[in-house]
UniProtKB/TrEMBL annotation:
InterPro entries: CobN/Mg_chltase. Residues 1-190 form the CobN/magnesium chelatase domain. It holds the Pfam family CobN-Mg_chel. This is Magnesium-chelatase subunit ChlH.
Length: 236
């Protein structure tokens, strides 16, 4: 239910009905809650947590574990995120001064572009063109919270964009899973069975990095040739 409420903060959409001010704000707040490393954008909760000397991921984990201090802090951060302009620019003067201004500038520039897209109303015009057999501009069909570039609505959507796989969230989750698997293997056998521990560490931390361009992965990964060379040298 929590995931559904974040992805669909205003429920199902009615075609041709533009969002109200509150609905637009709800969409922006949920968009601001996601860190987008491929675009150099920090989430608003992460920026607010930094002003208190905390890492938002640690706050999330502490809240999930039932640590009351983190539960309350997450509640406060969530409330502040719902009215970002009020809390960051009007009320909390000292906290605003301690916030990272460059991160805020990048985030609010991104949210400004999102607002333009959210408020656009192209659906009925596009529907009329489709019924007349005319060309409709294509666009991705993911949810607008994780990828605001699907907006404005009224496009001929396609469900899958191969260039957008893997996402940064998937890569981050994969790194955690791989590290846990390697640690479990090490505890069982006292060693990690790979061709080279050095190659594994370099591939994991330095060499194998995705090439991002405007939030998509158009040209594979950096470091593949270097890894192949090291593997060849190790086997040889």
């Amino acid at each position: 239910m929590e995931i559904e409420s974040r992805l669909l903060p205003c429920g199902l959409h009615v075609i041709g009905e533009p969002p109200s001010a509150m609905e637009a704000v709800a969409t922006l707040v949920n968009s601001a809650a996601l860190t987008r490393p491929e675009d150099g954008i920090s989430s608003l909760p992460a920026i607010l947590a930094e002003t208190l000397g905390r890492d938002i991921e640690d706050v999330y984990m502490g809240s999930d574990k039932g640590i009351l201090r983190d539960v309350e802090l997450l509640r406060q951060i969530t409330e502040a995120s719902r009215e970002p302009l009020l809390h960051l620019w009007s009320e909390a003067r000292t906290r605003r001064d301690r916030a990272d201004r460059e991160k805020l500038r990048v985030l609010f520039k991104f949210l400004g572009e999102c607002l333009k897209r959210v408020g656009a109303d192209n659906e009925l015009r596009s529907l009329k063109q489709a019924l007349e057999g005319k060309y409709i501009k294509p666009g991705p069909g993911r949810d607008s919270i994780r990828n605001p570039k699907v907006l404005s609505t009224g496009k001929n959507i396609h469900a899958l964009d191969p260039q957008a796989i893997p996402t940064t969230a998937a890569l981050q989750s994969a790194k955690v899973v791989v590290d846990r698997l390697l640690e479990r293997q090490r505890l069982k056998t006292e060693e990690v069975r790979t061709l080279s521990e050095t190659v594994r560490l370099d591939a994991r931390t330095k060499l194998l990095n995705p090439k991002w361009y405007e939030g998509i992965l158009p040209s594979g990964y950096e470091g593949v040739r270097e890894i192949e060379k090291r593997l060849t040298n190790t086997v040889g």
